[in-house]
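Example 9 (inverse folding). The structure is encoded as follows.
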């Protein structure tokens, strides 16, 4: 009498062997290996996402905190200067340069001397914010109470006779005797207009206005070297907006995630 096993049948030849089990069910021996590979892949994806997020947050913080540009002050000497004379009776048209009277200013109501000077302002970048601009002139000699006027114009780097007649009042000052006096003109608005127009030279002419018939002494405005001081802040370099950075970061995360997801475990 043979005893029939409920698991293996009635004879040894019909019993399933370990080899047969492995052949029919290959996953039975490799299941743990596949699970470990899959787990490692998921961990790598998560680590990549975390790193990408940290980088993105750092970039956003750096751009959300605007950097303050430092102010710069330039002190400029004139690049060219000249003096001209309107022969009497004066008509507002200057007749000739007068090198022997270089730096002179005078208006006695009949004959007029004016001095023009120009500054190269190319050291100030276009689009800069002008905090302040001043022109400092030391008047060499003053006899009696005199008044001078400073007019500005767009220069060219070379002074012509027509430049002495150009009007564009920057400021005026009253001079009181005796001796040299320092006069400081506020040229902020004038410099702003030049830079907005993309000009390279700032021109000024100095005249006595109104005329003073009782004083015939000519005074000088170039003996002590006029100085143009410009306090400015250069325009900041355009930076990516936080929204564009956020979009770029999210795209990077999506790319890394898809790249990781395509990798298949090696059996």
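The amino acid assigned to each position is listed next.
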């Amino acid at each position: 009498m043979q005893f029939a096993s409920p698991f293996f049948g009635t004879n040894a030849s019909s019993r399933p062997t370990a080899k047969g089990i492995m052949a029919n069910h290959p996953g039975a021996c490799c299941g743990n290996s596949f699970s470990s590979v899959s787990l490692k892949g998921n961990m790598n994806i998560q680590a990549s996402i975390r790193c990408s997020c940290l980088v993105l947050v750092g970039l956003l913080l750096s751009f959300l905190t605007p950097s303050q540009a430092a102010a710069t002050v330039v002190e400029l000497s004139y690049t060219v200067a000249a003096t001209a004379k309107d022969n009497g009776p004066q008509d507002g048209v200057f007749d000739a340069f007068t090198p022997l009277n270089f730096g002179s200013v005078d208006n006695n109501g009949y004959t007029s001397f004016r001095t023009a000077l120009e500054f190269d302002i190319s050291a100030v970048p276009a689009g800069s914010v002008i905090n302040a601009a001043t022109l400092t002139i030391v008047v060499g000699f003053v006899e009696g109470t005199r008044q001078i006027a400073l007019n500005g114009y767009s220069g060219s780097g070379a002074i012509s006779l027509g430049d002495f007649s150009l009007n564009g009042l920057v400021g005026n000052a009253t001079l009181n005797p005796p001796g040299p006096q320092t006069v400081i003109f506020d040229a902020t608005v004038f410099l702003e207009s030049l830079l907005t127009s993309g000009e390279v030279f700032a021109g000024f002419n100095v005249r006595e206005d109104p005329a003073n018939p009782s004083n015939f002494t000519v005074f000088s405005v170039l003996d002590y070297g006029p100085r143009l001081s410009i306090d400015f802040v250069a325009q900041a370099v355009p930076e990516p907006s936080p929204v564009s950075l956020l979009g770029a970061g999210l795209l990077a995360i999506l790319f890394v995630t898809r790249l990781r997801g395509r990798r298949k475990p090696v059996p």
